[in-house]
Amino acid sequence: MNQRLDILKQWLKEESIAAAFINSTENVFYLTNFHTDPHERLMGLFVFPDAEPFVVVPGMEARQVKGAGWNYEVIGYSDHENPWEFIQQSINKRNIEGNTVAFEKEVVTYRRSENFLSLFNSPQILNVEDKLNEMRVVKDETELEIMRRAAKMADFGVEVGVNALKEGITEMEVLAKIEYELKKKGIREMSFSTMVLFGEKAGDPHGNPGDRTLKAGDFVLFDLGVVLEGYTSDITRTFAYKTISDKQREIYETVLKAELASLEASKPGNRIGDLDQIARDIITDAGYGDYFPHRIGHGLGINVHEFPSMSHLNNGILKEGMTYTIEPGIYVPEIGGVRIEDDVLITKDGYETLTAYPKELQIIE
Amino acid sequence: MNQRLDILKQWLKEESIAAAFINSTENVFYLTNFHTDPHERLMGLFVFPDAEPFVVVPGMEARQVKGAGWNYEVIGYSDHENPWEFIQQSINKRNIEGNTVAFEKEVVTYRRSENFLSLFNSPQILNVEDKLNEMRVVKDETELEIMRRAAKMADFGVEVGVNALKEGITEMEVLAKIEYELKKKGIREMSFSTMVLFGEKAGDPHGNPGDRTLKAGDFVLFDLGVVLEGYTSDITRTFAYKTISDKQREIYETVLKAELASLEASKPGNRIGDLDQIARDIITDAGYGDYFPHRIGHGLGINVHEFPSMSHLNNGILKEGMTYTIEPGIYVPEIGGVRIEDDVLITKDGYETLTAYPKELQIIE
After folding, report:
1. Does ipTM exceed 0.95?
2. Which of A43, A109, A110 to mutate to test the interface with B (most CBs of B within 10 A)?
């Protein structure tokens, strides 16, 4: 952790930033190893180019910060106290010079920005996310080891879902079984609301699982992931139930072809946006361009959606250690939808998929 | 919904606010009946004193806004488009006059405030939450009907948990059973991370369920709630497993006495802060004042934590239709903890508890 803090402090020096306020659960975790969900209460990390950093948390959690390995100042406050008063005192005592400050513009609420900025005279504002996103986009071995296990849990979730399929079962019943088995393995939190969609329901890329019962000829779409030790996974698999029409088969094979092509283009030095374009071209050539309404994927790590954005507009370059999803889909309202998604790691000379559940077309009996 | 919008528009007129930007999932739901989790994508409602309001959403969800009953403009955008360009066009076409604007200061990110404010010349900023919180704090019959059902689901969750208890079972196994049974009943989301804590684990008000196995003499603490049709519930019950010491019994009876006294004080016209003080005095008189580190409760509704804050500092007055939790607790590190929590509705001349699971001391065999 200290190494990450050192890199950030070095950046503060280079940018002549007097103080940085880190407010997101995810970035505080990245820099301190302390993970919490403080709900509406304030939790934050304050970092300076030279002075000692400090953490502010609801008092009940103060000892957990130390327990996570944080060796610097921790300020705990009660519900009836104003944490900004303590923050002001702690900053004053550090004799900070300069009026350029940084915080997470994409995350910090306007109210908290007001509170933070009021501690400085005529502050100039920079976005600390510029640096933190750059740091977080490349994962180290410790992170990858956790992400590999998180991806295996997602594979397992799909396996549970497939085994639960039977005529007449509802989407919610299958979803409940998946999450039950994952919880029994110690998973406390899914990385987003699990999707189990049957038939025409799978034709909506943002559909909601419900009472729809399974019948022959349905597509079955699973989209799920877990949070494990602060890191996420995210997998989608689609299956045919009992029978499949020629049209459905064509859709499935087109999505699979697009996914494999996009994976093949996953190597250091390639343009990020090309991965979307390659898949999009295949889907468009097959006549389904209008039915692929989203980008090919998203970065994955502490957040289930983080950098890099896997949009065709992204001119960034793939680097070893980047992790993201590849998830092309085709959604045809009357027929249903197919999406196939893997978690991808850029290796020294290519890629590795962290998710490993088979993706050749399977017709579940 | 239109009535709520009308009240908000009337307030905009009174405050001479030219435009309001509503960004939180919860407030957009409250005003439009459309509920979504757009993750990092922008979703927002723009309201004006006279002109037609509009909603901006990721394109894939545009038809769901209409489906929720929204009869005004909806702007959908794709991942490669900048929604703020469409917002600017839609605002320009309305010929808005004035430079006082409002948004949710406690929720809107600094970046989005920049985007919104850049649409106006030298904008003056007010907080639209001042009005929305005031509106939301009193529930109507439609809301209460949902909240009653959400509370019954929470009762059911405790029942499942109690039935699952047996020597040697882990906290996570019990938690998994509770959520499995709730999901089978159609619950897609818990209102917060479910807590099942045994023995000394229950002595930490923010403990995390894990591998701790159940044994005779443990306290068993359940804290859970569901999200149902956009509304939340939240219940805590504590049980003794097989045996109970005199000290444990004293702690339990003190918490129960404090909870009942706080409930008795729940009637229109009473000072909100008194509910905390009454419970705190009972716990302090019994010698446990240092072991009750949190406020007595929180408002409950679309958010699991909302207004009113049930702190002893709150000088607000209880009104018919308010809903909140009462949840005193005593946490003694070596012995464990007890918390008893109900969801409370202020009625015309008193209160009603929405949660109904029995709370007399039970020793589970």
Report:
1. no
2. A110
